[in-house]
């Protein structure tokens, strides 16, 4: 089945109060076009599950700036000063996870696993309210899976059936998030005919994908640009 739609058709499905996973690490491999379309649509009271929250004026940051996000589930928010202020002012709920735990919770959600035990977080605020278990003399926390209504995924290439190829570091949280929602929407830089992709390079099977859209414009921002000092600059 051909899964190609317009971006407008895709985001029309997302209603107020939706839970959305968004792939990416920093500003790398994020679904830029879908985020902009959701911003333009104005959908509100969103719960966003993403490794981080972009920056003030890019990525998920534009949704936060537009008061469209009620809760962030993430691992790191240090590059978004606006989110920091909103959390302090209790305008946005925040749930922070150790990054490995976050990744495994998503994987568990996609695999249908009811939960898993991890030693990460023992002795920290992360353990508050969670079930503990002693295994082989070591204390573990029970972590529950993460699932969503929608996954917004960024791929380098997709065929018309939603088989996906990712480009280098953009293959971060995207593949596992593609498995962990009721409706996976993919924006691809290139859409190719069936049979055009090398099967050995396909990281996400089309069985997980409901809609594919063509990304029309990419800023591909660098989250924090750092320059090496020359010897003359250091002296």
Task: Describe what you observe in this structure.
This protein is α/β, with parallel strands linked by helices and about 240 residues long. It has a single domain (about 5-115, about 145-215), classed as Glutaconate Coenzyme A-transferase (3-Layer(aba) Sandwich), CATH 3.40.1080. It contains seven helices and eleven strands. The protein has helices spanning about 5-10, 30-40, 60-65, 80-90, 100-110, 175, 230-235; strands spanning about 20, 45-50, 70-75, 95, 115-120, 130-135, 140-145, 150-160, 165, 180-190, 210-215. Strands 1, 2, 3, 4, 8, 9, 10 and 11 form an eight-stranded mixed β-sheet that branches. Strands 5-7-6 form a three-stranded antiparallel β-sheet. The radius of gyration is 19 Å and the shape is globular. The mean pLDDT is about 95.
Strand segment count: 11
Total domains: 1
Shape: globular
DSSP summary: helix tally: 7
Helical/strand content category: alpha/beta
Rg estimate, integer Å: 19 Å
Q: Secondary-structure element sequence? A: HEHEHEHEHEEEEEHEEH
CATH fold-level name: Glutaconate Coenzyme A-transferase
CATH class: Alpha Beta
Portion of residues in beta strands equals: 25-35%
Which regions have little confidence, pLDDT < 50, spanning 5+ residues? none
Q: Give the terminus-to-terminus CA distance.
A: 64 Å
Helix share of residues? Answer: 10-25%
Average predicted local confidence, pLDDT: 93
Q: What CATH architecture would you give? A: 3-Layer(aba) Sandwich
- Biggest sheet statistics: 8 strands, mixed
């Amino acid at each position: 089945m051909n899964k190609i739609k317009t971006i407008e058709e895709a985001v029309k499905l997302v209603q107020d109060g939706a839970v959305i996973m968004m792939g990416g690490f920093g500003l790398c491999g994020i679904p830029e076009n879908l985020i902009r379309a959701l911003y333009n649509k104005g959908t509100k009271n969103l719960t966003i599950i993403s490794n981080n929250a972009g920056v003030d004026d890019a990525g998920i940051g534009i949704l936060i700036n537009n008061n469209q996000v009620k809760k962030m589930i993430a691992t790191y928010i240090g590059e978004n000063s606006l989110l920091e202020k909103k959390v302090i002012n209790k305008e946005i709920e925040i749930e922070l996870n150790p990054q490995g735990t976050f990744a495994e919770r998503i994987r568990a959600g996609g695999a249908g696993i009811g939960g898993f035990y991890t030693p990460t977080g023992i002795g920290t605020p992360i353990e508050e309210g969670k079930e503990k278990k002693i295994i082989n003399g070591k204390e573990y926390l029970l972590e529950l899976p993460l699932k969503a209504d929608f996954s917004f995924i960024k791929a380098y290439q997709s065929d018309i059936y939603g088989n996906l190829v990712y480009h280098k570091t953009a293959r971060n949280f995207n593949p596992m998030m593609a498995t962990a929602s009721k409706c996976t929407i993919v924006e691809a830089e290139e859409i190719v005919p069936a049979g055009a992709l090398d099967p050995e390079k396909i990281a996400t099977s089309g069985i997980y994908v409901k809609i594919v859209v063509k990304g029309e414009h990419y800023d591909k921002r660098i989250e924090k640009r750092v320059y090496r000092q020359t010897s003359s600059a250091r002296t």
